[in-house]
Write the structure tokens for this entry.
Amino acid sequence: DTEVTQTPKHLVMGMTNKKSLKCEQHMGHRAMYWYKQKAKKPPELMFVYSYEKLSINESVPSRFSPECPNSSLLNLHLHALQPEDSALYLCASSPLTANNEQFFGPGTRLTVL
Amino acid sequence: RKEVEQDPGPFNVPEGATVAFNCTYSNSASQSFFWYRQDCRKEPKLLMSVYSSGNEDGRFTAQLNRASQYISLLIRDSKLSDSATYLCVVGYSSASKIIFGSGTRLSIRP
């Protein structure tokens, strides 16, 4: 299984809502990532989990809260988002080998009203 | 100066043409190098890793020059299906982190 899956595919939420994005991989990868991508821009790293521990937080606002329940799962909890947070949210995983290629899920397209 | 810089594009070339993309990176501590392609409204997909010895995968050839901190991608005999944005990506193994270039948009016309 060489796939990273993400749910939901699309999400529309109000600024007062709480929602969660989910990501799963069964490749035995030990690192998982959250990225945010705006139109016509490259992905921007948000968080990195290595061996289920948060290793990088790229100064992301606290309205985004990551969680790694186990080595296969990664969640991103959303609360009190702003319209400018509307974007494609991508999850990735990597094996933490020397080359460490990252494999991306299809993303969740988030719209904040 | 951006850490990873790419040709801005867009490139618009006829089917069958050869097209080359260039990329430079600023951090000499970079340890891994990749080309990803991204189709409109889809996720980035790994096209190939890039090694100092150069590597080829069918119509695609990637080169790395560590001394000049330069990466290239050559696409021969381009197909309509090659139309996409090509992202140059540089990695730092110690930080489990990769840095994306801004991407080069390629359109292949019939």
